[in-house]
Amino acid sequence: MELTKLKGIGGKRAEEFENLGIYTVGDLINYLPRDYEYIPKLESIGKDVIDKKVLIKGEYLSSSRLIKIRKNFSMIKLRFKNEGSIFYATFFNNPFISRSFKKGHMYKLYGKVVKNGNNLDMANPVISKIDDNVMLKVGYNPVYPLSSKSKINQRLLRKYIRQSLEIVDIKDVIPKKVMEDADVISLNEAYAGIHMPSGRDEILKAKKRLDFDEFLGFNLSIAMNKKLSYGEKGNVFKIEGKEEYLKSLPFDLTNAQKNALVQIEDDLKRGVKMNRLIQGDVGSGKTVIAQYALYLAALNGYQSVMLAPTKILAKQHYDNLKGFFDKFNIKSIFLHSKMTKAEKDEAYEKIRVGEAGVIIGTHAVFSKAVEYHNLGLCVIDEQHRFGVEQRGLITKKGGRVHTLVMSATPIPRTLALSIYKDLDLTVVNEKPKGRKAIKTKYYNLDNYENTYNFALKQIDAGRQVYVVCPSIDSDDIESVEDTYNRIKKEFFSKNSIEYIHGKMKEDEKDKIMEDFYAGKIQVLVSTTVIEVGIDNKNANVMIIEGADRFGLATLHQLRGRVGRGDEQSFCFLLSSSSSKNVIERLSFMERNFDGFEIALFDLKTRGIGDILGFKQSGKGSFDIYKAMENNDLFVKAADTVEYLLEENTKENRTYLNYINKKYFLETKNITWN
User: What DSSP assignment string belongs to 536-595?
Assistant: First the structure.
C-alpha cells in the first residue's frame, strides 16, 4: 500500500519518508525502533526533580519576548504552572514556538529540570497535548533512527506507524505448530508490541517473534537456494611441494595453521568437492592457509581464483601474493570490473588459454565473459560478504571445483554449523608468534587533545592514522564529514587528510584508499567501511570517536586495521559517556584481544537500550551478532527448516510459497554482517 493512502501524507511528505528508505506502508511498519526511552510517571515540579529528566504536567500561562543572544541565535521562555508552582520552558532558535500553545490549556513536558536563579527551568523539552499518548506517554517510548536528509521526526514516525497498524491487515503465515514449538506470539501482537509497548516484557516477546521470523526466513532461504552440492565428486589433487612451501615462508606456522593445512590436504586428495570454511580471528594468519591451497592447485595443473568483496581488498591480496607466486613461476593476474575493455580482453584470453594460473579479483571473476581453462579451486575471502548463491556461481565455471572460504567473524561453533550448513569448519585460534599486541586505551574527552597530539607525533615519525566515526549522517551525532572538517581545522591543518564512507562511489573510495596505501594521505577519517580487510602496514594509530556507539566486536575488527606492520601500534577509544556500563565495556577492550571472548562479553554486558533496540539492516543483509545474542532461538529456527521442507501440509506449503516470494530475490545473495 502506498504511503499516500495514509491520512496526512501527500507527495512531498512521501518524498521525505523515502529519504529514510520508506516507500510503502509495509516499509513503515517494518521501520523498527533503534532504542526505547523509558519515561517514568508524572512528577510534580519542585526541588526533588532538579537535575532529573522528568515528565511534568503544566498549564500554559504566557510567553516572554524573543531574546536575541547573538547573530543566528535566539531564546524564548514559556511560563507554565504545575500544582500552584511556576516553572519555565526555554527554547532556542524557535521564535514561533508560542503559537503552538493556548493560554489556560494543559500540556505534558518532558526534559531535564535545572535551577536558574530562583526559577526552575526545562531547556528544549519535548511537549505534547495532555491527551496525546503518541509523542509522550509514561513507559517505553520507541526511538526511531532519523536522518538529517529528511524532515521526518519522531512524532511523525510514531503517528503514522500507529495509523498504519490500525488499517493494515497483517497476515500470519507461519504454521501454528511452528509458532507453538517456538513459543512465539502472533505477528499482529509483535508489531503492536514493538511499536506501542505497554511494558518491557511486551517488547521482548515482540522482538523474539520478529527475530524468529528473520532467522527462519534466513535458514529457509539458504536451504531453498543452496547451489553448492555437498558431497559431489571433486578433482583429486596430489599433495606435493609442501616442504618447499614451508621453506619459502619468512616465519613458522602456528599449530592451528598447520592443522588447517592438513585438513585442506585431506579434502583435496579424497575425490570429493572441498567446501571448507576457515574461521579465524583478526590477524590469525588465514591468508597464508589460502595461499597454500592456491599453490597446490597450481602444482596439480589447475587454475585457481581468489575472490574478495572489494577492489581494494582484492588488489591488496594481489600485491601481497604476486611475489610469492612469481618465485614458483606461477602466473597471477588481477581482475576487476573497472578495467578498460582492452585490459579485460587481455585478461580473459590469458585465463581462457590457461596462461593465468591464479586469478585474484572481485565479482568480475563471475562474469559471463570469463572462461576458465581448467578451474580447480575457488578461495573466497571475507565469507560473510558473499551469499550462498554467489558461492554457487563458481561451480558453473568448472565442474569439480573445490571451494575454500574464510571469515574473521567470531561466532560459537553451534551457530557456525547452523549458518554454514554447506561447509566443513576449521577454526584457526592462534596468533602468529612475535606479533606485537596493539596498545589499547580508553579515554574520556579529558584526554581528547592529548590523543590527537600523540597522533601528530606518530605522523611526524612517518606513520599514518585512522579516525573512525559512528555515522555518515545522523540527527544526534556528528557525521564523518563534520568530524573531518573539525579535526582538520583543530589538529591536521598542515597534514594531508581525507574522509571515506560507504555511500561514496566505488571509484572515489578506491582512489582515496590507493592514495592512503601510497602514503599520500596521512590521516583517513572513516566510518566502519574500513572494518574488514584493510591492510596498510604503515598505519599504526586508530582513533575511534564515540566508541560507546559501537559493539565491542566491531571495535575489535576496527582495531585489527593497525598492528599489521613491525612498528608498535595504538588504538584509542574515545567516549564522552559517563555510564558505568560503557566504562566497563571499553575498559574490557583495553586488556582483551580475543575476538570470541570480546563478542561474548559484548552480548553479556549490553545496556537495556541495546537489548531492546533493533539494528536497521539493509535488504539482503543479516545481523550475525543478533543471532549470537539469540543463539538458542536461531538454532531452533534452523531445526524447524527440516520439518517445513519434509512435512507436506497445506500450512507448510503456504508458508514456503510466502518465503519464496518474500525472500528469494533478497536472500539468494544473502550476506551477513
Answer: -TTEEEEEETTGGGS-HHHHHHHHTTSS-SSS--EEEEE-----HHHHHHHHHHHH---H
